[in-house]
Amino acid sequence: MARYKFYDSDTAHDVFNKKYNGTPNFMTPQIVQHSWIGDLAVELSRGFDIFNGGTMYGVTVLTADGERTDMSKGGFTRAEALDYMESLQA
Predict the structure, then answer these.
(1) Which of 14, 43, 59, 75 could form a disulfide with 10 if both were Cys (CB 3.0 to 4.6 A apart)?
(2) Nearest to 45 by CA among 26, 65, 27, 28
(3) Nearest-CA neighbor of 18 among 38, 34, 39, 2?
(4) Residues 58, 62: Cα–Cα separation, whole Å
């Protein structure tokens, strides 16, 4: 199945905004960045870790047409989240 963006000019931010209507992730509500990794729209976000204290990061991954994937993960440190995002390029 061919993947496509909602519109050719969509940014990764647009894909997330259309999917979630601007509603933040409840665990990591502060958006750090949106980016394209290949044909995947990726969001890096952060929030307060209620279990361990401090800041935790999450990586949400959508297909280019805005569908959820099983590649989204949370509970990262910032370095771990960035490493995970880098691994998505492989």
Answers:
(1) 14
(2) 28
(3) 34
(4) 13
83 by Cβ neighbours in 10 Å (0-12 / 13-18 / 19+) ranks as exposed
The per-residue pLDDT for range 58-88, each reduced to its tens digit, is 999 999 889 999 999 998 999 999 999 999 9
Q: How far apart are alpha carbons 19 and 14 in whole angstroms?
A: 9
β-pairing verdict for 73-76 and 55-63? antiparallel
**Residue bearing tokens 């880098």:** 86
Q: What is the pTM of this model?
A: 0.85
Start-end of H helices in the chain: 12-20, 78-87
- C-alpha distance from residue 62 to each of 25, 40, 48, 50 (Å): 14, 6, 23, 26
pLDDT for 9 equals: 53
Determine the 3-state secondary structure of 78 from DSSP: helix
